[in-house]
């Protein structure tokens, strides 16, 4: 069995390393060199013998090196196979002699070095002529490439499946066999690269451009050319570690090349680059710096993808995996992946890898979560119980522990609470929205566009699950603690994301009444009046009291969204909040996006006051605003708050 396996792999190696077939650039006929080393000599001799007129013409135009400058392109396979490419307009026509015509695609050949001492300062090289490409040539080219691609893809599938079936621990491949497998998959990646360049050529007809999508070429490239082989390598670790590193770097280079040259499938290339970064990260268990580096690389690509396609939940799931071991951030990304337009339901299972161990913890079992503070641990446990419905008897105790420790946690973290603050706020909103459960009454109401809403009957407590009632109660208790920290600018991001959610609920009265009933409106009014009193000279009340979204403060040419804007982006209740073009022109990395700048303090206050004015305009039964005195008050209180008698600042 082992001899036959070794013989098969040696045969694959022979197929991969056989001399390339050549095609004459003048007559397009195939030329088979005796050896790979004789390719250039064979082509030169063919041109000198069969095309002397062409050589004379080139020399007459001053191109004395015409033959030596010929492009040598390797061709894989022939067009005599039984497959057929079919476009939306019908089958692609076959070329007259059944052979494809290779285009001058970007060459992969070594750099020619000049002899030592040769002066090339004033040497001029005549620019090669650009020969127009006809549709017939493009069709023939794509057909020829696809024929070879099918052959190599079939061989890759056969090899990978055969190796996966061999589960014997003694079945180990030697170095030459691993190199053969890498070469085989590298050939498939190169064939895909050539196919994309030819089918997406600027001169290609629309039907030809659609072929890559019609035949799912990006997905096939990832599945058969990269992912299947990476899984094979991963299951053979640690013996396959060096070969896995080699192939990851090879695949990463090819993906970056496609990202730069084939923008039509940019979304696929970005996600594939993030996945390759995760594979590279996963094999660095002992080298922490390398692991952190590749974690950052993978996060960069997923964040780039989420910026371009903010409603794709799968990308937030990947970011949650990379967020370990931060509990707030992990839970935020997992829940966000369920509350966007394109949900990623697999997050419901993945999030349990975070929640199950924490929910099951006993009173003294906290050693495995030493990186979590008590506040973070109890917070994750509370929302884990709400999400999973497991151990409901632990909820009240965990909620009390979280609330009791929250104020001191905020005080200790100071400016470092800004980011966890808006994560906490959005996690609470996601829990109230039912975690994207299709049958949840809140989620059904929230996901419908405002323009399609017709209103409905107000919901009562018995109409919603107990977990939702617990989520509303816990959120209101959290609001109460945080709203009491007057003068603390670090809690304003939390207030901002909370009011965005509450503003959306004003358009959904059947949900709003139940959520807003116990909301601490009086404490909110006190906080809002404090913001007005402490910053009245720098606030733009024309923007705050206006109908239009208040754009950020500009400092010279500087203008950018707030950090929590990026975190909220894509959530179902923010689709009508941000104006069109709010995120346009932003190409910054995560470190820049989430960097807190001094100028954002006043901008964020304006946003909070703007949202409060809009809520007061729509729901006078909860919050009121006096535009003359510029004061807020809770409609349920007997007396308005006086800024001069507010509690001391936190």
In short:
The protein has 650 residues and is mainly alpha-helical. The protein is built from 27 helices and six strands.
Major pleated sheet: 2 strands, antiparallel
Structural class: mainly alpha
Overall geometry comes to elongated
Distance between the termini: 76 Å
Identify the strand order in the major beta sheet. Answer: 1-2
The tally of domains stands at: 2
**Overall mean pLDDT score?**
80
Question: What does it look like?
Answer:
This protein has 650 residues and is mostly helical. It is built from 27 helices and six strands. It has a two-stranded antiparallel ribbon with strand order 1-2. Strands 3-4 form a two-stranded antiparallel ribbon. The chain has a two-stranded antiparallel sheet with strand order 5-6. Strand 1 and strand 2 form a beta hairpin. Helix 23 packs across helix 27. It starts with a helix and ends in a 16-residue tail after the last strand.
Summarize this structure as a short list of keywords or feature phrases.
mainly alpha; two-stranded antiparallel ribbon; 27 helices; disordered C terminus; 650 residues; 2% strand; single chain; 2 domains; 6 strands; elongated
Describe the protein's topology.
Layout: H1 2-16, E1 22-23, E2 30-31, H2 39-50, H3 52-60, E3 86-87, E4 90-91, H4 135-165, H5 175-199, H6 206-209, H7 211-214, H8 217-235, H9 241-261, H10 266-282, H11 288-308, H12 313-322, H13 327-336, H14 347-350, H15 352-359, H16 374-388, H17 395-413, H18 418-432, H19 441-447, H20 466-483, H21 492-505, H22 509-516, H23 521-535, H24 541-544, H25 563-568, H26 590-593, H27 600-618, E5 623-626, E6 631-634
Helix pairs in contact: 1-5, 4-5, 4-8, 5-8, 5-9, 8-9, 8-10, 9-10, 10-11, 11-12, 12-13, 13-18, 15-16, 16-17, 16-20, 17-20, 18-20, 18-21, 21-27, 23-27
């Amino acid at each position: 069995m082992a001899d036959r396996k070794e013989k098969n792999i040696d045969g694959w190696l022979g197929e991969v390393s056989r001399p390339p077939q050549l095609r004459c650039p003048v007559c397009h006929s195939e030329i088979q060199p005796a050896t790979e080393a004789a390719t250039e000599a064979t082509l030169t001799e063919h041109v000198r013998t069969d095309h002397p007129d062409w050589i004379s013409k080139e020399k007459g135009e001053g191109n004395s090196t015409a033959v030596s400058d010929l492009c040598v392109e390797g061709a894989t396979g022939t067009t005599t196979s039984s497959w057929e490419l079919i476009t939306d307009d019908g089958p692609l026509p076959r070329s007259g002699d059944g052979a494809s015509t290779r285009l001058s695609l970007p060459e992969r050949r070594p750099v020619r070095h000049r002899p030592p001492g040769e002066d090339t300062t004033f040497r001029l090289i005549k620019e090669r002529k650009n020969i127009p490409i006809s549709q017939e040539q493009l069709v023939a080219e794509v057909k020829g490439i696809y024929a070879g691609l099918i052959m190599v893809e079939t061989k890759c599938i056969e090899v990978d499946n055969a190796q996966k079936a061999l589960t014997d621990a003694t079945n180990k491949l030697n170095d030459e066999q691993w190199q053969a497998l890498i070469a085989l998959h590298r050939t498939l990646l190169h064939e895909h690269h050539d196919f994309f360049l030819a089918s997406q050529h600027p001169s290609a007809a629309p039907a030809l451009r659609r072929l890559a999508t019609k035949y799912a070429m990006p997905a096939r490239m990832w599945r058969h050319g990269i992912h299947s082989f990476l899984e094979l390598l991963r299951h053979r670790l640690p013996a396959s570690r060096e070969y896995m590193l080699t192939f990851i770097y090879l695949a990463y280079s090819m993906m970056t090349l496609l990202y730069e040259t084939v923008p039509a499938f940019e979304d696929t290339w970005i996600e594939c680059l993030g996945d390759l970064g995760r594979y590279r990260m996963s094999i660095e268990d002992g080298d922490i710096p390398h692991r952190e580096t590749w974690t950052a690389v993978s996060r960069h690509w997923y964040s780039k993808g989420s910026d371009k396609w903010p409603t794709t939940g799968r990308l937030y799931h990947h970011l949650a995996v990379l967020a370990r071991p931060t509990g707030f951030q992990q839970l935020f990304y997992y829940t966000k992946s369920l509350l966007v337009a394109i949900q990623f339901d697999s997050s419901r299972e993945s999030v349990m890898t975070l929640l199950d161990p924490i929910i099951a913890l006993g009173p003294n079992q906290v050693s495995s979560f030493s990186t979590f503070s008590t506040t973070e641990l109890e917070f994750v446990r509370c929302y884990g119980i709400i999400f999973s419905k497991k151990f409901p008897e632990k909820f009240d105790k965990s909620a009390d522990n979280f609330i009791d420790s929250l104020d001191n946690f905020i005080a200790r973290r100071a400016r470092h609470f800004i980011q966890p603050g808006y994560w906490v706020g959005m996690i609470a909103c996601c829990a109230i929205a039912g975690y994207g459960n299709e049958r949840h009454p809140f989620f059904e109401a929230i996901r419908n566009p405002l323009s399609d809403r017709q209103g409905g009957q107000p919901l009562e407590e018995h109409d919603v699950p107990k977990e939702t009632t617990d989520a509303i109660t816990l959120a209101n208790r959290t609001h109460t603690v945080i709203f009491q920290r007057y003068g603390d600018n670090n809690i304003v991001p939390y207030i901002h994301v909370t009011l965005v959610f509450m503003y959306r609920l004003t358009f959904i009265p059947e949900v709003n009444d139940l959520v807003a009933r116990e909301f601490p409106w009086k404490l909110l009014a006190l906080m809002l009046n404090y913001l007005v009193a402490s910053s009245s000279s720098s606030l733009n009340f024309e923007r705050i009291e206006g109908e239009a979204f208040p754009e950020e403060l500009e400092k010279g040419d500087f203008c950018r969204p707030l950090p929590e804007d990026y975190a909220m982006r894509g959530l179902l209740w923010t689709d009508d909040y941000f104006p069109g073009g709010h995120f346009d022109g932003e190409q910054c990395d995560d470190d820049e996006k989430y960097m807190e700048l001094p100028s954002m303090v006043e901008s964020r206050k304006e946003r909070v006051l703007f949202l409060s004015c809009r809520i007061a305009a729509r729901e006078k039964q909860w919050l009121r605003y006096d535009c003359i005195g510029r004061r807020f008050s809770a409609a349920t209180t007997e007396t308005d708050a006086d800024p001069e008698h507010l509690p001391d600042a936190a």
